[in-house]
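Notes for week 9. Today we move from apo structures to complexes. The key idea is that a small molecule is not decoration. When we ask for a structure prediction with NAP present, the ligand SMILES becomes part of the input, just like the chain. The input block below holds both the sequence and the ligand string. Read it once before you look at the output, and try to guess where the molecule might sit.
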Amino acid sequence: MRAGWYETNGPARQVLRVGELPDPEPGPGEVLVRLAASGVNPSDVKTRAGSRPMTAPRVVPHSDGAGVIEAVGPGLSPARVGERVWIWNGQWKRPFGTAAELIALPAEQAVRLPEGTDFVDGACLGIPALTAYRALTTDGSVKGQTVLVQGGAGAVGHYAVQMAKLLGAASVLATTSSPEKAAHARAAGADAVIDRHREDVVARVRDLTGGRGVDRIVEVDAAANMRMVPSLVAQDGLCVVYGSSTSEVMSTFGPMILSGVAVRWFIVYELAPAVREEAVSRLNGWLAAGALQHAVARTFPLDEIAAAHEAVESNTVVGNVVVTMAAGRR
Ligand SMILES: NC(=O)c1ccc[n+]([C@@H]2O[C@H](COP(=O)([O-])OP(=O)(O)OC[C@H]3O[C@@H](n4cnc5c(N)ncnc54)[C@H](OP(=O)(O)O)[C@@H]3O)[C@@H](O)[C@H]2O)c1
């Protein structure tokens, strides 16, 4: 099979290779998926660059993808052969991810992809969409609440704005840093967008909430924003953190205790099975209903996987970056 891989950490153009690797075989309880698309997330490019030590002598990157089940391993019914699927955790604690024509993985990590959802969009679900859903459903419901999505035009943020509305939030506020990103967040359903470079985010949020603050913050950069949290949330509000630009996150004790804020941290790779099952079923319901907008900004053929990584690292792409295999986009 054709695949992209790296054998050492480093800059994309230096370490990423594309070529032939042996076809994987599905083991017991596994399916073999012929991939059409592979999603490139910040986590994948950071791992390739060295944020986590190499876990195997050779790594085929990317956790997210979509394609068609080509074969099943021992113990599984062949009824799933031919099923369109999307993949989650394809490269989490595994060496061979979705940047290849084929992947063999546990059957539960290949979820039926509803008709009407393209493979390239299917390659944006495992990390961005499931992360957005978890950030909005952990620790209670957002129904009737006011939600602030930090980074509302990001791959996760864009889904979070939409899902907050679908989950019945009374008002969804988003921060972005350019008119283009503001338009993207508004098109996703944001009721108000705050320019975090040109406006006073705290003052705007207090103004937009009648001085009360928001019930929930979906936080993309804890290191940069934690100090604002006590001023942004309503009394006893919630800040759900999924991202941070640096590993150290500072907060100030007094304001934090006075606000009564709860801070939930999570990583989408390690969702509990029941939590993931509920999230996947809800997500597939929305996909089948055509309720979600997807935002694939750029696609690259497998041979240009290094350029795809550089595009994610550039922070200039508004939306998702996806690598496509010869097997096609639909
Ligand atoms: N814990 C998890 O399970 C999990 C899951 C998915 C992603 N992540 C992490 O979350 C981060 C975002 O992922 P993504 O795929 O959504 O990336 P992305 O598409 O690059 O989006 C990030 C967005 O955040 C905005 N942003 C950056 N710094 C900000 C700040 N200080 N305040 C407010 N907005 C800010 C960026 O836009 P502007 O800079 O233009 O405002 C951009 O729109 C990455 O670090 C990723 O590793 C973690």
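The pocket of NAP is lined by residues 41-43, 127-128, 131, 150-151, 153-157, 175-177, 181, 196, 220-221, 224-225, 242-243, 266-268, 315 (CB under 6 Å).
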